[in-house]
Amino acid sequence: MLRVLPSLDREKFNITVFCFAKDGELSNQMKEQGIKVVSPPLFIQDLQKPLLSKAMKFTWAAVKFIILLRKMKIDIVHFFLPTSYKLFTPLSFSRFNLKRVMSRRGLNRSSKKSTLSIYSYERYLHHLMDRISANSNAVAKELINEGAPSELVQIIYNGVKESPIAINQRRDIRSELNIPEDHLLLVIVANLIPYKGHKDLLFACHKIQSKKWHLLIVGGGNQNERSNLENMATYLKISTKVRFLGSRPDVSHILKGCDIGILASHEEGFSNAILEGMSAGLPMIVTDVGGNSEAITHGTTGVIVPPNSPESMAAALNYLIENPNKRIQLGQNAERRVKKYFSIDKCIEGYESLYLDVFRKH
């Protein structure tokens, strides 16, 4: 949203972001770029009693949402996340002739834990939408399997901005991180969540520990999970070659100093991390889940391996380490592919086309 909304044509679209939780950093960045953000008043955000806080937030949000729809004469409401979709779709019928759009940006993990009634309710909501957007074929197929009308499902891939590498930038970044020039720099950009496959990657790196490499793990998450991974790296005797950088605002900068990008997820929708790695000219090793194979062409822009397979991951890493010419070729191909198919401009065009098409049927 932060990449797309500020870039939409303001002469055609008057945008308001409605939050029913407290403001965060993304909210501030939206405001800085001229996007109106409506969020709960501070006295509700700061309530210390969880149950009272939740009740008051939803009550405030429900009333404010209905008032906003009518007062601003909203034409299209776009439900970006599952919670807003389930809670606010019924409330949106308070405005006559409103068009509704829903996005799903990942595979529906919650459906595996949902009761039959919640699952049925979500299937019902799909039929109330005027358009449903998915960010990969994998997500689109899942939506259709859930009962979403296929004619309403539209794929809009994520997009990234082009970010050319300046002369000496790679050397300078490696110097900042104190990485020897003759060591390959591997990188995974993913929050520290078990299904992101960090443990598989550490096992894979253990199998190639005799090679000259360093691994950067970029991403925030639960401190316990980080401690578990750090202990695992120590147990596998690779801790001196693994660096945990935490959540970083300069990911694109870091990627430009790396040699191989990795995504080891057990499940995925369509990952921006893959596109960002490709944009930095990295050959990507990714698992064959979700929309990963839609971004990466095996053997041409990267290597696709089975999920939950440290052995396959290790073999792919070893292959790219031992074949520098192939590694460079894959990275160059990846950079060309992301420019052609996954640019931020294409993504913005997709959303503008969707909104205009829905509005014309108003």
From TrEMBL:
Domain (Glycosyl transferase family): residue spans on this chain: 170-336
A GO MF label: glycosyltransferase activity
Gene3D superfamilies (alphabetical): Glycogen Phosphorylase B
Domain Glycosyltransferase subfamily 4-like N-terminal intervals: 6-160
SUPFAM superfamilies cross-referenced by the UniProt entry: UDP-Glycosyltransferase/glycogen phosphorylase
Protein name: Glycosyl transferase family 1 domain-containing protein
